């Protein structure tokens, strides 16, 4: 999230929180695609991580991008921590360990979001190369320890950094060493939101397997194909997971609000100050009885910011965020929106996808969630492997994209963006497994070649 929301409207009741989410409903012709991806900067000369300050640091990278793009800087104290395109709606932000994130503008087609991605990578390379900086196209930094990883100067991350060890053993790894690709998609009504949320949650482990690309930690294999995904299992169980309640009768905006209200807060922002209230209840802030800020009452900014600190596999805001995939090469970054748009933006394909997953129990879904990071496409559910399910689901997604009929200037529709996933599902072998073959073969037990072979 590049910028914290600024809306001082007071919250009168729980109904206001529900209405905030409900305001995300849009007619189909207004549905858009927002793709986000994180990449890990490193110095090409010695493969070291890039700190914030310094002549060749992340700050200089941001300042160079501002000069190139003319985007508005996002400041904290005297530190630029991101950039915002006030015209198009895109943004650049920093994750806790310096991961450089593009939050794409809301666009109409996968063609457009892929063009945006390629333009961004060309722009960031123009600034980064003279600084001797490259970017890893992986789901986790493969070489550096936590202690070697830089820390970005963002107050909210300081609060999270202190709190994470209290609620899980891997939260700091999530913050400082992982990178993802996400797509944000719209819904037309509460019922449409629920159906899309259920399908997306059930199939998120499939996305984890298809995009698995983080098999190395601290210079050696870590035992997983998607260590990034595994890390989320022991980050903070209060705010992560597969949301089993979403599949129960009565699911809707109100039910999500009730869950979100019970997730402990991180902070309350007033003016430019982040007040550390980690572990406190949003219900207490609503009632004006938050111990750390007595008498202070919740605003819509507080609610929007609180929603941004929830990390389930699919997150509901005024749109749905798909959160199960590792970052990767450019073809995979374009495949992420194509996969989910094909499944969720065509009603018949959404129903077909629901038919694939509707018989799975909560226990089945959780077991698959836990198995996919280690086993990838070999993980099974209801007697079927994820490779088999992946081929079926990709066929559904292809139908959905073809039916959309969104053509580029060459007359091609959006289905060609699925090609990398077709290969992975067809062969039953992930990018992570390809990396491990190289590690044990031509790379001779070193992860260093990944900095040239899997870099932008």
UniProtKB/TrEMBL annotation:
It comes from Chelatococcus sambhunathii. Homodimer or monomer when oxidized or reduced, respectively. Belongs to the glutamate--cysteine ligase type 2 family. EgtA subfamily. Pathway: Sulfur metabolism; glutathione biosynthesis; glutathione from L-cysteine and L-glutamate: step 1/2. It catalyses: L-cysteine + L-glutamate + ATP = gamma-L-glutamyl-L-cysteine + ADP + phosphate + H(+). The keyword Plastid does not apply. Pfam families: GCS2. NCBIfam families: glu_cys_lig_pln (TIGR01436). This is Glutamate--cysteine ligase. GO terms for molecular function: ligase activity. InterPro entries: GCL_bact_plant, GCS2, Gln_synth/guanido_kin_cat_dom, Glut_cys_lig_pln_type. SUPFAM superfamilies: Glutamine synthetase/guanido kinase. Its EC number is 6.3.2.2. It is an enzyme of class 6 (ligase).
